[in-house]
Amino acid sequence: MRIGELSARTGASRRSLRYYEQQGLLVSARSPSGQRCYGDDHVQRVALIQAFLTAGMSSRTIAQMVPCMTEPNMERARQALTTMNQERNRLSSTIDSLVAARAELDHLINVNLDFLANAAGITPRAD
Question: To bridge 117 with a disulfide, which of 30, 103, 110, 122 should be the other Cys (CB 3.0-4.6 Å)?
């Protein structure tokens, strides 16, 4: 199938599919005229790439798991698991940082609300 059909079947734009190839996540054959040609297995691969991207993984990190996607075996699956666990830890750390930032912002909002209440002559709220 050509890139347009793969795009239609997966919902990925043609531009995204070209990007996936550029990053080494997807490999196409070429027709004699130079057009990209894909097989049915590419539909599943694109879905997997999109799932990893939705999970917050970078294309560089996903590229580390291409060998497992292409020819899975126990060792490659273990390596992919290690990569996914590292990404999960990275996301957890980011989430923790965002929660702390939100708590600090909530505090600053409350300080501002207290200032506004005092400036307007309103009794400050009791938290």
Answer: 122
